[in-house]
Amino acid sequence: MPQPPRGTLPRVDVAVAQDMNITTSPAYVGRFAPSPSGSLHFGSLIAALGSFLRARSCNGKWLLRIEDIDPPREIEGTADDIRRTLELYGLHWDDKVLYQSQRFNAYQACIDQLLAQGEAYFCQCSRKTIQEQMHGLYNGHCRQLALPEGAVRIYNQQQVASFDDLLLGKIQVTSDFASEDFIIQRSDGLYAYQLAVVLDDAYQEVTEIVRGADLLEASCRQLSLYRQLGLPLPQFLHLPLAVLKPGFKLSKQNHAEALDKKRPHIALQQALAFLGQPPVTVDMPERMLAQAVAQFDLQRIPKQTEILIGS
């Protein structure tokens, strides 16, 4: 996995050292980080269960973070519903739940420092302009214009075009994608996922990120940010996605059915089978998970990015 250049000092720590609270602890820390835009569904369960089993089998922590940085997409009461569903499924997290909405000051401090250091800049190019005039990838048009406002883009000086995934092996993206100056704050002032997730994973000292394979490309951008900010790099493990047809994953956006809160043992057995794990012989969620952790085998997870399931 790419490492920061030798001798590079963390830049963001200078401004937000107390916020980052970064140590070099080798203990395993994993996490599940849903957005409150809808109820958890089977695809969510795969990510939650996979990250939970991996963390517990490594005798590590499993944290819960609610990624509520996009208010227009959020549904009132969903964050509470997510917590309640996880508890009913026996997926009990460590420490307090972290809400991204509590972290806006940290995000802004980072952006302000990057702007001051010339490592980020304002951009006023529209999506239409980028699509029609730049073939879909931003070409750095506003980098030298010193605009006073707009979306904020990172001046990407630490491009990452490949990384080693713990399940899928070497992941490669195009050099054009890897070198793009991507957005870290939208023109409406909302913070971009790429920035928030990197700062929060560093803040929570996450050592390994287990999530769905739809975020493979995003991992390269996040690794670029880790390197540019001088932050410790986590490892990545991307799980196969549950899809109804090729390229059409179960998601809140396509109205995937919410998890059954009355019969969690059924969905848990199905999710274990999806992840290639041996069946368990009990049907109480906590006992099911205890047995599943004891017999968890990373090598049994299918090494593919998506798996077709019945509708």
TrEMBL record:
Query: Which cofactors, if any, are listed as required?
Result: Zn(2+)
Q: Which organism is it from?
A: Shewanella fodinae
Q: What positions does the entry give for ATP binding? A: K252
Residue positions annotated to bind Zn(2+) are C123, C125, Y138, C142
Which UniProt keywords are present, listed alphabetically?
Aminoacyl-tRNA synthetase, ATP-binding, Ligase, Metal-binding, Nucleotide-binding, Protein biosynthesis, Zinc
One BP term from GO:
glutamyl-tRNA aminoacylation
**Taxonomy, superkingdom:** Bacteria
Summarizing the function annotation, the protein's role is: Catalyzes the tRNA-independent activation of glutamate in presence of ATP and the subsequent transfer of glutamate onto a tRNA(Asp). Glutamate is transferred on the 2-amino-5-(4,5-dihydroxy-2-cyclopenten-1-yl) moiety of the queuosine in the wobble position of the QUC anticodon.
Q: Where is the Glutamyl/glutaminyl-tRNA synthetase class Ib catalytic domain?
A: 31-258
**TM spans (from-to):** none
Q: What are the GO cellular component annotations?
A: cytosol
Q: Where is this motif: 'HIGH' region?
A: 34-44
Q: Does the keyword Cell membrane apply?
A: no
Cofactor annotation comment: Binds 1 zinc ion per subunit.
Family membership = Belongs to the class-I aminoacyl-tRNA synthetase family. GluQ subfamily.
Tell me the InterPro entries matching this sequence: Glu-Q_tRNA(Asp)_Synthase, Glu/Gln-tRNA-synth, Glu/Gln-tRNA-synth_Ib_cat-dom, GluQ/Sye, Rossmann-like_a/b/a_fold
Report the GO molecular function annotations: ATP binding; glutamate-tRNA ligase activity; zinc ion binding
Q: What is this protein called?
A: Glutamyl-Q tRNA(Asp) synthetase
In short, the EC number is 6.1.1.-
- Chain location of the short sequence motif 'KMSKS' region per the record: 249-253
Which residues does L-glutamate bind? R31, F32, A33, P34, S35, E67, Y193, R211
